[in-house]
Amino acid sequence: xxxxxxxxxxxxxxxxxxxxxxxxxxxxxxxxxxxxxxxxxxxxxxxxxxxxxxxxxxxxxxxxxxxxxxxxxxxxxxxxxxxxxxxxxxxxxxxxxxxxxxxxxxxxxxxxxxxxxxxxxxxxxxxxxxxxxxxxxxxxxxxxxxxxxxxxxxxxxxxxxxxxxxxxxxxxxxxxxxxxxxxxxxxxxxxxxxxxxxxxxxxxxxxxxxxxxxxxxxxxxxxxxxxxxxxxxxxxxxxxxxxxxxxxxxxxxxxxxxxxxxxxxxxxxxxxxxxxxxxxxxxxxxxxxxxxxxxxxxxxxxxxxxxxxxxxxxxxxxxxxxxxxxxxxxxxxxxxxxxxxxxxxxxxxxxxxxxxxxxxxxxxxxxxxxxxxxxxxxxxxxxxxxxxxxxxxxxxxxxxxxxxxxxxxxxxxxxxxxxxxxxxxxxxxxxxxxxxxxxxxxxxxxxxxx
Length: 450
What we know:
FAD, flavoprotein, FAD-bd_PCMH_sub2, Oxid_FAD_bind_N, FAD-binding oxidoreductase
């Protein structure tokens, strides 16, 4: 099996060294022959960092396990294999008037990946995370046993697996509760705001009135335009299509450019044009769901535009009480570093609790930035963004990360040892090696010294 097919979406870290099929891994696990720390389930490679990589062992290709097992058209309860893509779940359930309650920014993620990362969407204020809608899952561990996990069966394993980044075992299948919708189409409204203060004034009311809300920030704008952007709100249209659009891509980046195409001059022009086009009318308009939820999925391999060194994405969440100070500070740090972010997204998380032991989601505001990998210069900026975030009482998203240090991880997730206690000894990731295992080793050294 060609391991080069198993990279991360950010492409700033090397692809997997070794990969095996799901059938091979299942056979190893059932025979109790998996080596310590040797395996990690791999979905469709949409994680930006190394949480989907296992440099010291093997990744398991879960994509062939993609069968939809059952669907109840009355209740919206769907059971599918872990390798089933979200786009296939949407296509299957749409004619019956159902849609996933939570979708991330791409529908090319697997069901197992969505659970393992406890992904979120534009409606956290109403629906919480993806994990809030998982009814049950089946998990194969290195003791050779298959566990049914839910809020009533193997509860600790259930909560550790949601948001557990694939470390508790191999997710084989899951049952999820879909949301009934009047149509797949979205009534979308774009509202301009002059600065971040105006956005914060608009944000809570927008959440109360709408199913979906997210803001785009013109990250490069300075002076009087500093913090300007567009607030997008949406609700499912009462009269619209129940047919899922074709999940293929119309455009592509067929070859790797030798340099970063998304440079500062390009982004300056793009941001101005985007703000004008999307914000020229405040009137609501009916839009297809793909354009609203998954705009970049229409361009295959768009991540190549960042150049051969790839990109780093930084997503933070900060408490609501600190957001009016911290979000501008994060944007200012990027501007001072001369780094332009192609995708700059700001949204509000509500207080819907995730069942996950280790979920990134918590009440507050989340800012997402991405930067082309310019080596040490970019790493220094990301470290500064980490510092600003944790000093504000916030957290950095692990499944978007490719380089945070153990101390930032511990500050973001002080309860990390709860997941380590339930981690399957045969499962490991490059991210966990880089963060939690170093913390664990440091703790062991300190205890020995005492």
